[in-house]
C-alpha cells in the first residue's frame, strides 16, 4: 500500500482526488490538509464524501507528512506549491502537483506567463509533465509529476496527432469550460447569477495554458508551434471542450481518422468519436470519468480541419489525470481507481 496525503484537500480538485483515492486498491489515504477546516470532518466540506471518510482535515506539516506518507498530491493555487515541493522531495516524498508550478521547462517562462521568478529552476528539469498519453515512459519512477492544466489537456490531446504530420505551426483553440475550473471559492464572474446562461470569452490574450501547450506541441512537432487558446465560460459545472482550428490541403477524412487511431492506439482513456447520435465529442458524455473524447471535422471546400477534445476538467483535466500519472509512476494499472464510466445524463 502506498500511503498518500492530499494537500489543499478542501478545494475542488482536492475533493475530487479524495473521491478517486477512496476506491484505489493500492493506496491508503492517511491525511487531508486544510488551513481553514483543520480539525473538521472531511464530509463537512465535501458532502459527497460523507460516510466515505471518517477522518478530519489536518494542518499541513512537513514533519508529519515525512513520518506518515510516501506520496503527496498538492492541490494548491499557483505560486504556493513551488515552495512546498523541494522540502517534500528532500525527505523522500513523491510529489504530484496539480498547479502550474513545475509544468514549464524554461524557467524564464515563469516570469513572462506567471509574473514570478521561479525559486527552484533546477527542479523544472526533474519534473515530468503528467500527460500520460505523451509521457507514459518518463512517468515510470517519477518523483515529481507536474499535472497539466485542463484547457491545455483538451487542446494538446486534440492537436497532438497532427504534429509532425501536417503543415502548419499556428493553431486556434476555442475552449468552452465549466465553472468548476475556477475552484471552490466564488468570484464576481463565478457567482451563480453571473455565470448561469453565460457564454463569455475571457483571457482572450495570453491565456496561461498556451505556454504549456506550446511547450508540449513544439516538442512533438520538432519545431516551434504557436497555439492561441481562447477560453469561454459557459453554464456547465464540469467539462471543457476544445475546438482547435487549422488549415490543411490535400487531406482526406480517412487519413485524419487513421492518424488519430494510430497515435492513440492502446491509450485506455482516449475514445475517438465519429459516429452515433452525437458524432462529435461533447463533455457531457465524459462527466465523472477520466475519458478524453476526441474527434474532428474536415471542411474540404475550405481546407479547414477542426479537431475536438472533450474532457471533464476535474477528472482528465485535473484529479483523474493526476491519479493516472501516479499509477504509471508506481507501476499500478493505468486505470486503477479510475474505472468509472461517465454519467448519463451528466
Ligand atoms: N479546478 C480545475 O478544474 C483545475 C484543473 C486543473 C488544475 N487545477 C489546479 O489545481 C489547483 C487547485 O485548484 P482547485 O480548483 O482545487 O482550487 P480550490 O478549489 O481553490 O482549492 C485550493 C485549496 O488550496 C488551499 N489554499 C489556498 N491558498 C493557499 C495557500 N496560500 N497556502 C496553502 N493552501 C492554500 C485552500 O484550502 P484551505 O484554505 O482550506 O487551506 C483551497 O481549498 C490549482 O493550482 C488549479 O489551477 C484546477
Count of discrete structural domains: 2
Helix content: 25-40%
Q: How many distinct beta strands?
A: 13
Order of helices and strands, N to C?
EHEHHEHEHHEHEHEHEHEEHEEEH
Strand content: 15-25%
The CATH superfamily title of the largest domain: Dihydrodipicolinate Reductase, domain 2
| Shape field | globular
Main β-sheet description? 7 strands, mixed
Terminal Cα span: 33 Å
Mean pLDDT across the residues is 96
Given the structure, what is the number of helices?
Answer: 12
Structure description:
There is one protein chain. It is built from twelve helices and 13 strands. The chain has 346 residues and is of the alpha/beta class. The longest helix is centred in the middle third of the chain and has 13 residues, at 209-221. The chain is globular.
Quick recap:
The protein is of the alpha/beta class and 346 residues long.
Produce the secondary structure layout.
Blueprint: E1 2-7, H1 12-21, E2 27-33, H2 42-45, H3 62-68, E3 71-74, H4 81-90, E4 94-97, H5 108-114, H6 121-126, E5 128-129, H7 132-139, E6 144-146, H8 150-159, E7 170-177, H9 192-195, E8 199-201, H10 209-221, E9 226-234, E10 240-247, H11 253-263, E11 270-272, E12 292-299, E13 304-311, H12 319-330
Parallel strand pairs: 1-2, 1-3, 3-4, 4-6, 5-6, 7-9, 11-12
Antiparallel strand pairs: 7-10, 8-9, 10-13, 12-13
Helix pairs in contact: 1-12, 7-12, 8-10
Question: Main traits of this protein?
Answer:
346 residues, alpha/beta, Rossmann fold, Dihydrodipicolinate Reductase, domain 2, seven-stranded mixed beta sheet, six-stranded parallel beta sheet, 13 strands, binds NADP nicotinamide-adenine-dinucleotide phosphate
Amino acid at each position: 500500500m502506498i500511503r498518500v496525503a492530499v494537500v489543499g484537500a478542501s478545494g475542488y480538485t482536492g475533493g475530487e482526488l479524495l473521491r478517486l483515492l477512496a476506491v484505489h486498491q493500492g493506496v491508503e489515504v492517511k491525511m487531508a490538509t486544510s488551513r481553514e477546516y483543520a480539525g473538521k470532518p472531511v464530509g463537512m466540506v465535501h458532502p459527497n464524501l460523507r460516510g466515505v471518510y471518517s477522518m478530519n482535515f489536518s494542518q499541513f506539516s512537513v514533519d508529519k507528512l515525512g513520518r506518515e506518507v510516501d506520496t503527496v498530491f498538492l492541490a494548491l493555487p499557483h505560486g504556493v506549491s513551488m515552495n512546498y515541493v523541494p522540502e517534500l522531495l528532500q525527505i523522500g516524498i513523491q510529489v504530484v502537483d496539480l498547479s502550474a508550478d513545475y509544468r514549464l521547462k524554461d524557467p524564464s517562462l515563469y516570469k513572462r506567463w506567471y509574473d514570478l521568478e521561479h525559486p527552484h529552476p533546477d527542479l523544472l528539469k526533474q519534473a515530468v509533465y503528467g500527460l500520460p498519453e505523451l509521457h507514459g515512459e518518463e512517468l515510470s519512477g517519477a518523483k515529481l509529476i507536474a499535472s497539466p492544466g485542463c484547457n491545455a489537456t483538451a487542446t494538446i490531446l486534440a492537436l497532438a496527432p497532427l504534429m509532425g504530420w501536417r503543415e502548419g505551426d499556428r493553431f486556434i483553440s476555442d475552449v468552452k469550460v465549466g465553472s468548476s475550473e475556477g475552484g471552490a471559492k466564488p468570484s464576481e464572474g463565478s457567482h451563480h447569477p453571473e455565470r448561469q446562461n453565460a457564454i463569455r470569452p475571457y483571457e482572450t490574450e495570453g491565456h496561461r495554458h498556451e505556454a504549456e501547450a506550446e511547450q508540449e506541441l513544439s516538442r512533438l512537432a520538432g519545431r516551434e508551434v504557436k497555439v492561441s487558446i481562447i477560453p469561454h465560460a459557459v453554464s456547465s459545472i464540469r467539462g471543457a471542450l476544445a475546438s482547435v482550428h487549422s488549415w490543411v490541403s490535400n487531406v482526406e477524412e480517412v487519413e485524419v481518422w487513421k492518424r488519430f487511431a494510430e497515435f492513440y492506439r492502446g491509450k485506455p482513456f482516449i475514445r475517438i468519436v465519429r459516429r452515433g447520435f452525437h458524432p462529435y465529442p461533447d463533455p457531457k458524455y465524459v462527466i465523472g470519468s477520466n475519458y478524453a473524447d476526441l474527434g474532428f471535422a474536415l471542411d474540404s471546400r475550405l481546407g479547414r480541419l477542426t479537431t475536438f477534445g472533450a474532457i471533464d476538467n476535474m477528472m482528465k483535466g485535473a484529479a483523474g489525470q493526476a491519479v493516472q500519472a501516479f499509477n504509471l509512476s508506481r507501476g499500478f494499472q493505468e486505470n486503477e481507481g479510475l474505472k468509472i464510466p461517465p454519467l448519463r445524463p451528466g
